[in-house]
Amino acid sequence: MADRLVEKTGPAVKLAEKQASKGERTRSRIMDIAYESIVQKGFAATSIEELVEAAGITKSGFFYHFKDKNDLARHLFDRFLSEDEEIVATLEERARGLADDPLQSFLIFLNLYAQLMDEMEEFHPGCMVASVAYQEQLFDSALKEMNVEYLLRMRERFERWLGEIRQRHEPRGSVEAADLADMLTGTVEGAIILSRSLRDDRLMGRQMRLYREHIKLLFGA
Q1: How far apart are CA 204 and CA 184, in angstroms?
Q2: Which of 18, 37, 66 is the last residue of a domain?
Q3: What does the buried/exposed string (b/e) look like for 129-164 if buried means 16 or more CB atoms within 10 Å of the residue's CB?
Q4: What pTM did the predictor assign?
Q5: Residues 118 and 159 both lie in one domain
Q6: What's the number of CA atoms in the CB half-sphere (13 Å) around residue 75?
Q7: Burial class (CB in 10 A: 0-12, 13-18, 19+), 172
Q8: Last residue in a domain, options 47, 66, 85
Q9: pLDDT digit string, tens, across residues 85-124
Q10: How many CB atoms lie within 10 A of CB 111?
Q11: Which residue range(s) make up the domain with 56?
């Protein structure tokens, strides 16, 4: 009886899974197109109509996946931040595995990060964090809060690491770990903006290596 039940419902389950998979692909495609448009010309200039046309779907198809443009932005931002934090976490794990000393591992991390930034245009043609910050009047409070929480998580991650460094290496001068952590995030975000404005793909990597030299001099490496 159980076998007959599985046999009877099996195709229906497979059809549902296939439809869900198709829906996920469509949803992902809309987000990819929206990301490209937002970072290139801004959120306000990105219309639902152009996203619908580029994705090859109907307007009702768009609203099947997203309540409105702000809902799309929230899902897009959540995906971007998750991917970005995963990259940082992976680089940190790799760097810490290569050196026991927190300063040496942090310098390795910065070097790995600089190498990634040399190819940043290939992975991220812009920065969602900066886009939200500069156009925050266009976004709802939920998305702006996501942005703030992300920046605070970045501060906490690097502040903890830099705090470990201070425990083992006396800095040359008075400096707070939190300020150095914010300096790193500011270097990343600012370098992305400068790189895009000046059309200099290597600027981001150079700025990261400059921050790395600052850390080396500060802690006497």
Answers
A1: 12
A2: 66
A3: bbbbeeeeeebeeebeebbeebbeebbebbbebbeb
A4: 0.80
A5: yes
A6: 15
A7: exposed
A8: 66
A9: 999 999 999 999 999 999 999 999 999 999 988 886 544 5
A10: 16
A11: 1-66
